[in-house]
Every structure is written in structure tokens, then in C-alpha cells.
Amino acid sequence: MSDERSTKRPGFFRPLIGLAAAGLAGASSWLGPAPADEPKATGPATARFSMLPSNHMVLRAMLNGKGPYRLIFDLGAPITLLSNKAAETSGTVDAKTPKSFLFSMRGEAEVAKLQVGSLTAEKLPVVVFDHPALGVLSEVLGEPIDGIIGFTFFARYRTTIDYQKDEMTFTPVDFAIRDLMKDLPDRIAGPKVARRRVLAPAGLWGLRLGEVDGGGKGVRVASVVADSPAAAAGLAAGDVVTAVDDRWTTSVHDVYAAAASVEPGRPAPVAVDRDGKTLVLTVRPADGA
User: Fold this and answer.
1) Given pLDDT bands bounded at 50, 70 and 90, which one contains residue 47?
2) Domains and their CATH numbers in the chain
3) CA-CA distance, 47 to 161, in Å (whole number)?
4) Percent of the chain, pLDDT > 90?
5) CA atoms within 13 A on the CB side of 237
6) What DSSP string describes the chain?
7) More confident residue, 285 or 39
8) What is the distance between the alpha carbons of residues 256 and 233, in angstroms, rounded to a whole number?
9) What is the rounded average pLDDT of the residues 219-240?
């Protein structure tokens, strides 16, 4: 499966106001007509999506049997968000529920039933407020964007996206979803326990690191212990270590962090710069016990 179209996905908090209005002329046609009703699937479910000029995927969803509502599918969103209008008209919140001054936030709520294509999700936790970036995007498009489908939804499924068919396939997975908003106060106010983390290789390598290379390539080897794993691999003093176990190493911390994940006896590739040439050597750390 391949598609030459851009598939960048702006994150939840990334501003969306950098859209060129000229490039969105007639943007309402991008949303397209609402997809025809599909029978409820007994296995993996599918749903059609539309691509906006901003490279956002938009799903048309029914909320509590009302809609459809246009929701951006965003893998970078830690929550599922609904605008105040969508939450009220779908019956997710009562119109008399008080709003806060900031973004007219109403806090947490629950959608009893969300339907996209042939998929039905129940008891979906959401947060209700008017995200300013969605307001700007709605204004530019000339059609409302009613919210964002985020982690509390997609964590329930293994999602396959076919960009040629503009179709998503959702396969349920057994995953316990934590209520991120509910946990947040406890995590902020909870006891602060100082932890000391020591970075050290799991095995013995047999080399001593020197200074970081002036050109920013990596870390220079100060010396190599005779008859050590590093010596057996061919490492030599003066080599500049640029990668360990396929991890870039531009600092001493990087080298130790990469080496710490290599178990004794497991061969690990080490890329070095030697006299302007790149060499990839294989080091098999020894057991340090």
C-alpha cells in the first residue's frame, strides 16, 4: 500500500492557523457528502474519512444518534475533544452546564454512543471545550469542525489507514485506557520521590571515552584496553564513535545510554569515524559479573 500524498499529522497542540486562505477556496467540497449508512460489523469495522487541505483526516461521526459531526482524527491528541455546540446538540452535556472563562471549558463528559462508519463505540470519555485552533480552521473552511478524536478512542483499536481508499479499519484490542485527565491532579500533587539513575553499560566493553569531537560527529575514544571486546572488534584510540547499536551518539551520555541496552554476549554494531572514513565494527560486550 502506498500513496504519494503528504501524510503529515499535526499534533493536538500544534497551531493550525498557518493555513493559506487562498489554498482553501471551495474547501467545503473536501469534506464531501456524508457516507452512506453501513451495517454494523461483527469483526473489524471500517469508516471513510476525508482529507482537508491542512492534511487533517476528518471522520463523520454520529454522537448519541445525532449528527453527523465532523471530527479530526489525531493520533497526537491525548484526549477526545468536543466543542460546546456539538456536546450540547448531541446530548453529551446539558446546555445549562456552567462554562469556565478559559475556552468555555466544561470539563469531562461521556458520549454514550459514537458511530463512525460500521463502528460503534460506547461510553467514550471526552473533554468539552472550544479549542481556538479548531475555531480558526472552521472559519477558514467555512464549515464547522466539531472536535478531535484522540487517545481515548483510538487506544481501543488497532487502526489501519488506506490512503488510496480514504478508509480506516478498526480492529478491537484488549487495552485498559487510563483516564488521563482524572489522573493528572494526583500525578501533579502526589508525593515527589527523588530517584537516582546511574547510566552504566550492562557488559564490559573495554574502552575509555575522551572528548566530544569538535565537528559534532560523535565522541572520541581515548584508549582501548588490550584483549578487551572493544580491542577484539578493532576499535582504536582516536576513533570517533558516531553510533552504538544503531543509536546516534553525539555526547558521552548518548554512548553510555546506548551501551546500557546491550546485554553481555550480544553483538552490537558500533559506527566510528577513522581518518575521515566510516567503519562499522561489531562489539560483543563481556559479562562484567
Assistant:
1) very high
2) 21-189 (2.40.70.10), 203-287 (2.30.42.10)
3) 10
4) 37
5) 7
6) ----S------TTS--TT--GGGGTTTHHHH-SPPPP-PPPSSSEEEEEEE-TTS-EEEEEEETTEEEEEEEE-TT-SS-EE-HHHHHHTTSS-TTS---SSTT--EEEEEEEEEETTEEEEEEEEEE---HHHHHHHHHHTS---EEE-HHHHTTEEEEEETTTTEEEEEE---PPP-HHHHHHHHHHS-----------SEE--EEEEEEPTTSS-EEEEEE-TTSHHHHHT--TT-EEEEETTEE-SSHHHHHHHHHTS-TT--EEEEEEETTEEEEEEE-PEE--
7) 285
8) 18
9) 94
CA dihedral 165, 120, 40, 86 (to 10 degrees): -70
Instruction: Count how many residues are written for the chain.
Output: 289
For residues 232 and 268, what is the distance between their CA atoms, to the nearest angstrom?
13
What are the backbone angles phi and psi of residue 179, rounded to the nearest 5°?
A: -85, 95
pLDDT 10s digits, 120-168: 999 999 988 888 888 888 888 888 899 999 888 988 888 898 988 999 9
* Nine-digit cell string for 247: 543509536
Residue 187 makes CB contacts below 8 A (sequence gap 6+) with none
Amino acid at 122: E
How would residue 12 be classed by pLDDT, with cut points 50, 70 and 90?
very low
- Comparing C-alpha atoms, which of 98, 36, 77 is closest to residue 180? 77
Written as nine digits, the cell of 154 is: 483510538
pLDDT of residue 97: 78
Reported pTM = 0.50
For the segment 58-65, the average pLDDT, to the nearest whole number, is 94
Alpha-carbon distance values, 143 to 127, 136, 221 (Å): 22, 11, 60
